[in-house]
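_Full entry_
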Amino acid sequence: MTRSRELRRISALAFFLFVSLGTWAVASPVGSAPDDTYHLPVTWCSWGESASCDFVGGEDGILVPSQITSVCTFQQPLRSASCEFDVTQELVPAPHVQYVGQQNSLSGRTPFHVVMRALVGDDSAASVLAMRLFNALLFTALVAVSLFLLPAKLKVPFAAATVVGIVPVGMFIIASTNPSSWAVSAGAIFWVALVALLGKQSVRSRSAAALFALVVFSAVLAVGSRLESAVVLAYSSVAAMIYTFSVWKRDRVRIVAIAAG
């Protein structure tokens, strides 16, 4: 298969993957992801006070738009997910943030929340949709880059494992405003990029450098979402090294390069 033909196929796959994830992003009401009533207020306030976040004293903690503090469909299966009665930008206390005892300190924020804050605008629903589509696009880009860099023997296993692994819950989490979006996305990429890197006959090449960058980026992405992702990355690293042991054990430079990373 020529490189241009492969690029077209990967582009087509990426397009349909993004459309699929985007469909989930559009179809889900605001606050529908796990613990969104916590993560959305933390995101809104992760840069400090603003027109959409007010820090107050006492038991109220922080004030954010009411649309991101509750899920109108919670235990209400017959209620429309449009939640039109709940669409308001009035600043109200965030009860979930109060419940976990974080209030003004927002000590639970992560790089994920800080980055998502850049997409916050005057319309809460539009902001949430922008975050979901951004995360869907991020995952799509990572998958496309991985398929382009991986050796032929890993492309099909990676694509198959990814498709099977993310349906249906993974799709919902990836295209969401929950930090697990990055953890799932990075976890799906890290292992295969590391296997490809360790399995290369030479670490002194452009493709090896690109794979190394992909490994590092996915690791940073995972830990930047949830610190416990480090455990998953550690297990993935051990599994990848065992799988490719017969190749990388002959290259001492590879060991030094990976250890330095």
About this structure: The two ends are 33 Å apart (CA to CA).
